[in-house]
Automatic annotation (TrEMBL):
SUPFAM superfamilies: Galactose mutarotase-like. InterPro entries: Aldose_1/G6P_1-epimerase, Gal_mutarotase_sf_dom, GH-type_carb-bd, LacX. Its cofactor is Ca(2+). The lineage of its organism: Bacteria, Pseudomonadati, Bacteroidota, Bacteroidia, Bacteroidales. Keywords: Calcium. Signal peptide: none annotated. This is Aldose 1-epimerase. Pfam families: Aldose_epim (PF01263).
Amino acid sequence: MEQIKNDKLTVTVSKHGAELQSIKDANGKEYLWQADPKFWDRHSPILFPIVCGLWEDKYRVNGKEYKLGRHGFARDTDFKLIAQGDNQLVYCLNESTETLKDYPYHFNLAVSYKITENKIKVVWHVENTDNKEIYFQIGGHPAFNVPDLKQGEPLAGTLKFDEKEPSRLYGNVGGCITPGYHKVKTEDGLYKFTQNDFKDDAVIFDHSQLKKISILNKEGKPEVTLDIKTPAVGIWSPYGKDAHFVCIEPWYGIHDWAEYDGEFKDKYLMNKLLPGCSFMSEYTITIGE
C-alpha cells in the first residue's frame, strides 16, 4: 500500500488494481467504502478494457471471438508503481502473455492520483504501443459511504445532480442495456435514493448529461463531490443488501446492447487509438465543500 497526504486528506492506494483503498480527512473520518465482503468486497476498481458487461461475456475482433468478464481485467491485476511524491502516486499496467489471450492489443495504461487541498484528481492515460489501431473502454467505480446512517438502518441518501431532469438507460437484461430513455425524477436536481432505486442494477446516464454529482448529508451539505467529463456515468449500490454506500462511476464506455453480436470496435461508446497515440482524461473527488 502507498499513501499520500496533506493537512486535509490522507489517501491510500494499492498496487493491486491501482485501486483507492481509503480517503480520510484531517479528523480521521473515512469517506471511501471499506470493502466489507458481506456487501461488496471492492473500494474503487479501475474498469479496463471494457466497462460493464459484454453480451454472454463475449466480443469479436475481425471475426475472432474472445471472452472478458464484467469490467475487464485491470481491477484484478497488479500494477507497477512508477512515481511517488508527497502528493502524487502514478501506477502503470502493460499487456502481458495473459492479457493478450483475452485482449489482443499492446497498450500502456497509467493511473495517477494527486491531492491538492481537499481534492483528489484521478487521471487515466492509455497509450497505444501496438502496430495497429486499438479499441478500449475505461471507467471508475469509486464507492463512498452514505452519511448519517446508523448500523442496521435501510439505505437512504441524497445526491445532487447538475441536471434537473436527466434520462436513464436500463441495464437489466443479461447485464446489458436496452433501448429507450426514462426520465429520472428529482427535486430541483436532488435525487433521493433507497435500495429500490437499484432494483434494475445501476442507474445509467449517457450523452454527458451529468458533469457534477454530490453526496449530501442530512444538513444538505456536500460530503463528497465528483466533477466528471465522461460521456456516461453509473450510480449503483447492491440491490437487496441495504449496504451503506453508493458508487458514482464515471465511464468512457458502457454495457453491450442486449444480444449485441457485432464487432468490438463498433460497440456503443468505444474509444480508439492509432499506433503511437494516447488518450488522457480525469475526474476529481472533492471532500467536503
